[in-house]
UniProtKB/TrEMBL annotation, chains A, B:
InterPro entries the record matches: F420-0_g-glutamyl_ligase, F420-0_gamma-glut_ligase-dom
Gene Ontology MF term list: coenzyme F420-0:L-glutamate ligase activity; GTP binding; metal ion binding
Keyword Zinc on entry: no
Name of the protein described by the UniProt record: Coenzyme F420-0:L-glutamate ligase
Span of domain Coenzyme F420:L-glutamate ligase-like: 9-229
Matches recorded under Gene3D superfamilies: CofE-like, CofE-like domain
Length: 252, 252
């Protein structure tokens, strides 16, 4: 497997054509995409080109946001955006030594993560908040279709975001949008010695997203990573297929 | 970055020399390790060579194990081993439609995962249980030292296991033992536009482990994956450095 980044992408702004920018950047590095290549794209560049950005100056916080913001010492306007992006707050807490506390929310698309994935890093200016795209699967498919048309071969696209984990420090990238890439690899039910494997199902899309973090430096300069040489079958997976149902959840 | 597997490794048994087997398999595929190469090794082959395997026929379950086993419909002897490997049971539950329920435990080394990482897949025979190595960091360093001596260059080793996640389906590999590989990459505190990034710290070792899952098929034939071409600095990290302290944990 080879993994490489797309160099020289521009600073993306609302209305820019992400697919065209990737095509041009690949041309500049003399790279053609090949059948089976998978692109992992940081959601931030998708969000920016789709205009999923919010100027904090334009936000009027609700009473609920003001109350929660006081509890965790965050800007009430940012908390208002977090609440708008959420279906539910799962946990909120500020320890005495923290300057800002933690809000773990269930995003309205079902993802459970800090701040409902509302992010102010890599925004274009202080006070700009970036949210997830409205429909990250559709975003992934738009880019996939455009690149497949240009390169004349079947590709896959994962839109990723950077999430923390409950019991482990640091962050890894996970898949929040999928085009053709299977969410989970169904194994054939036997291990190397033919015994039934009841519960093993590699989270293929999340493995790709996590791997992209090895090259996708958070400084935002490498938001598109390409994987070549993997054996995989195209699927109809949606990113929601990765989510554990509330009924099966032990930790919500 | 190039990622490739070590082909032709044997079925490992207690007492076998894992490092020597890797050296021989690499020689057979005409591959020399190079400075900066990182190996991710599935803990199962480490556990097997170190004898961290238990014959379920030799286990006498305690009353606590018998009670918990009844609750989740597992073999009481397997539950006994899970309890011995655990410092605490975090959750246990069996839904009516499940044949076997779920035990989420805190392993005595601090990892929170299903069944305290006790596994019967890829065991050599039915009734054999595989546990984590006693000291996975030491295991990683043993292999790292032997390979560094043979190849004459600085390497890194991650020992991995396959964990589920609370809110996401499927499994990803995570790091349970480290030699020279940093647990977490400390970023320089600014994003692409110079803004302070307060909370971003990529879980480098876990990114490597997750990426290894793309090539480390669960059928057990590819337990050693090599990463080449990454920029990284050797560290004194231990796998415990990845663990969130109980005090900061919102979900224990």
């Amino acid at each position: 497997m080879q993994v490489f980044s797309v160099a020289g992408l521009p600073d993306f702004q609302p209305g820019m054509d992400l697919s065209q920018a990737i095509i041009e950047a690949l041309a500049a590095q003399n790279t053609e995409l090949m059948a089976g290549d998978i692109l992992v794209i940081a959601h931030k560049v998708v969000s920016k080109t789709e205009g999923a950005v919010i100027d904090i100056e334009q936000v009027t916080p609700s009473d609920e946001a003001i109350q929660l913001a006081a509890e965790v010492n965050k800007d009430p306007r940012k908390v208002e955006v977090i609440l708008r992006q959420s279906s539910r707050i799962i946990r909120s807490m500020k320890r005495p030594e923290q300057e800002e506390g933690t809000i773990i929310a269930e995003h309205k698309l079902g993802f459970i993560c800090a701040n409902a994935a509302v992010d102010e890093s890599n925004a274009d200016h202080v006070g700009q908040l970036i949210t997830l795209p409205d429909d990250p699967d559709a975003s992934a498919m738009n880019v996939c279709n455009a690149l497949e048309k240009h390169f004349g071969c079947q590709l896959g696209v994962v839109v990723s975001d950077t999430f923390g984990r409950p019991w482990r420090l640091g962050q890894t990238n996970v898949a929040v949008g999928l085009a053709r890439v299977p969410a989970i690899t169904k194994l054939d039910g036997s291990d190397a010695w033919g015994r039934e494997l009841k519960v093993t199902a590699p989270a293929f899309a999340d493995e790709l997203a996590a791997a992209s973090g090895l090259l996708m430096s958070k400084d935002g300069k490498c938001p598109v990573i390409i994987f070549r040489g993997l054996a995989w079958q195209a699927s109809e997976s949606k990113a929601q297929d990765i989510l554990r149902s509330k009924r099966e959840d032990l930790f919500r």
